[in-house]
Amino acid sequence: MCGIVGIVGNRPVAPLMVDALKRLEYRGYDSAGVATLDEGVLGRRRAEGKLVNLQSRLDENPLAGTIGIGHTRWATHGVPNETNAHPHFSNDVALVHNGIIENFRELREELIEDGYEFTSQTDTEVVAHLVSRELNSGKSPPEAAFAAIKRLEGAFALAILFKNEDNLIVAARNGPPLAIGHGEGEMYLGSDAIALAPFTNVITYLEDGDWATIHRDDMQIFNENGARVERAKQLSVGSTLMVDKGNHRHFMSKEIFEQPEVIGHTLSHFLDFSEQRVSGLDKAPFDFKELDRINITACGTAYYAGLVSKYWFEKLARLPVDIDVASEFRYREAPMKKDGLSLFITQSGETADTLAGLRYCKQQGQHIGAIVNVKESTIARESDVVFQTLAGPEIGVASTKAFTCQLSTLACLAVGAARQRGTIDATREAQLVRELSEAPRYASQALKLWDEIAVIARDLQNVDHVLYLGRDTNFPLAMEGALKLKEISYIHAEGYAAGELKHGPIALIDETMPVVVIAPYDSIFEKTVSNMQEVAARGGKIILITDQKGANAAGMDDAKVIILPEMPAIITPIIYALPVQMLAYHTAVHMGTDVDQPRNLAKSVTVE
Ligand code: F6R
Q1: C-alpha–C-alpha distance, residues 13 and 6, integer Å
Q2: Are residues 230 and 331 in the same domain?
Q3: Range of the structural domain that residue 374 is part of
Q4: Which of 76, 246, 396, 496 could form a disulfide with 251 if both were Cys (CB 3.0 to 4.6 A apart)?
């Protein structure tokens, strides 16, 4: 993870870099730093913690210079403190890095033997020393950078600044994204185009293996063999406005409340309401009719969205789905039939494991489809077809609206697949489209439970563990609910298939254990009632999320019941996600945690 910026400018760059880093804080926020060159001399300011700390450091002790590099960190090697914060220095070199240098141990030993002293515990410092050693051997700065890069194994995006080189930043990419921005007599570098949006919307993306020399008026890009290559300029649509919280206390609550609108927006992108059919699939480079299975890969919340869709694809379209978390899939060497379809679900479009899975599938001759929120992301750019979720920028680290927009998109795809495969007819398709179109209205109704859920959440703030149970599409939702609670309240939680309870987890149940049961009244509701009784008999405290029929049929007098309206089955996972998110949110607020930037996490996971 980590976010990096660089500016070869014609005005003081330190404040500009802090501004750009604010837009990259979603990539990490445990320390930050900037380095500039002022009259040929390298200077830096670094601070542990969030960017405001770096800002105060710079206010107390400003940094002059019209060229500089900056970094916001998510620690991989070395604790998050000022010494481990980037930029790292080695003699005439300052360097920032996003990624992991896998061979850093052997490089470190080699450099120590050569007399280099390490001041940090990071993998990054080896790169600074490597470049410095190459410079000392008489190479020019670009030659030295290239020679050092060739020694690196692993994933990296780098920006390098050199003493006395007032018109040069060297950048390199192998894995994590890097965008070069073109200005008027200024050039910029950033982990994404959004970071550069206040400066320019003309962007060149580096490809894997590329490295570049960036000057005020131009830049040159080279490939891994050192040959000059051309990469196209693109117009970025990234907003120049910093997304703000409006009148919400947190981005997470704002994003929870945006869901009726963004779900509606996303659905209207894939559904033709007047014709009452799924639209846009005819342009895809594959036909669901020709497929005998599909493969879905994703991480975290996006993976749970994929798991929900497995039920939809299999039930509606009779299409088997293989689904994996990307960190397992990428090394599993799954055999794949040529011309199959692999779908990748991702909010950021930059998740390293998901991207690696995508590249594996490409090699296996698969069609690549991405369900992605950030249109200009690497995964979107490397896919054959993009089904964009229209959630808008999601800033809260815990995913909320991106999840329900992923579900909305996947529901449309499953209905479209069913129609192409002839497992549903036009009448059933029209009915499902009508039902899906109701989702924004039900989402608005679910939000009315905000205050009621805040009261229920008070009981959760003092517990150590919470169990979430669900069946069918509510099973992945149970796992998503547990993940949400873990992430932002730091309470240990697990999501289980309700039917699995008696195969182990029931041993955990006692009067201290809250059990959140997600169960709209449906054909298997009674099965879940049995599970609730098993919990109640052992003193477990049930929080039941259901509808009025479910509440009546459950007859759980001691349970806290959150009642949603009755709704069509296809939209229940989308709508039931909202109370689950609200429960986690309110618990975290009661506990006083940092809801939008919970400890140890980052919004975009660009390392393995
Ligand atoms: C949880 C969460 C993460 C992400 C996961 C994948 O709230 O946000 O679990 O879902 O890191 O990220 P993307 O969707 O960007 O690939």
Answers
A1: 9
A2: no
A3: 254-437
A4: 396
Count of CB atoms situated within 10 Å of the CB of 41: 11
**Which of 2, 299, 361, 405 does the annotation list as catalytic?**
2
Question: Is residue 377 in contact with ligand 1, taking CB distance under 6 Å?
Answer: no
Question: If you take atom 9 of ligand 1, which residue's CA is the nearest one?
Answer: 300
In the residue annotation, 603 being an active-site residue is answered as yes
Bond into 87 cis (ω within 30)? yes
Helix (H) or strand (E) holding 584: helix 572-591
- Are 269 and 240 in a shared domain? no
Written as six digits, the tokens of 354 are: 């998901």
Minimum-distance ligand 1 atom for the alpha carbon of 347 = 14
Q: Is the CB of 327 under 6 A from ligand 1?
A: no
**Cβ distance 252 to 597 under 8 Å?**
no
For 558-601, the pLDDT digits (tens) are 899 999 999 999 999 999 999 999 999 999 999 999 999 999 88
Q: Which amino acid is at 564?
A: L
Å from CA of 399 to ligand 1 middle:
6
- Closest alpha carbon to 484 in 597, 345, 373, 580: 580
> Can you give the pLDDT at residue 569?
97
Phi first, then psi: what are they for 157, rounded to 5°?
-125, 130
The answer to the question of residue 126 being in a domain is yes
Q: Which of 158, 192, 253 is nearest to 23 (CA)?
A: 192
In angstroms, what CA-CA distances link 400 with 305, 455, 552, 583, 584?
A: 11, 21, 29, 12, 11
- Tens digit of pLDDT for each residue in 174-219? 988 899 999 999 999 999 888 999 999 999 999 999 999 999 999 9
Nearest to 222 by CA among 238, 214, 210: 210
Q: Which atom of ligand 1 is nearest to the CA of 348?
A: 15
Indicate whether residue 76 lines ligand 1 (CB < 6 A).
no
Residue pair 33/47 in contact by the 8 Å Cβ criterion: yes
- Pair (187, 271) in one structural domain: no
Please count the helices (runs of H) and the strands (runs of E) in the chain: 20, 27
Q: What is the pLDDT of residue 238?
A: 60
Residue 552 and residue 533: Cα distance in Å, rounded?
Answer: 14
Give the predicted TM-score (pTM) of the model: 0.85
Please tell me whether residues 63 and 35 are part of one structural domain.
yes
Give the whole-angstrom CA distance, residue 369 versus residue 172: 28
Q: What percentage of the chain reaches a pLDDT higher than 70?
A: 99
Backbone angles phi, psi at 32, to 5 degrees: -155, 160
**How many angstroms separate the CA atoms of 105 and 102, rounded?**
8
Specify if 92 maps to a domain. yes
Q: What is the CATH number of the domain that holds 91?
A: 3.60.20.10
| Ligand 1 contact, 346 CB (< 6 A) | yes
The residue among 149, 153, 78, 147 whose CA lies nearest residue 118 is: 78
**Which among 397, 416, 437 is the end of a domain?**
437
Cα torsion 558, 482, 463, 394: sign: negative
Judgement on whether residues 58 and 145 belong to the same structural domain of the protein:
yes
Asked whether residue 596 is domain-assigned, the answer is no
| Residue 2 designated active-site | yes
Alpha helix stretches (DSSP H) within 318-425? 326-332, 352-363, 378-381, 401-421
Question: Tell me, what DSSP letter sits at residue 565?
Answer: P
Residue whose CB lies within 8 A of the most ligand 1 atoms, among 605, 606, 608, for a mutation test: 605
Give domain status of residue 310, yes or no. yes
**Number of folded domains in the chain?**
3
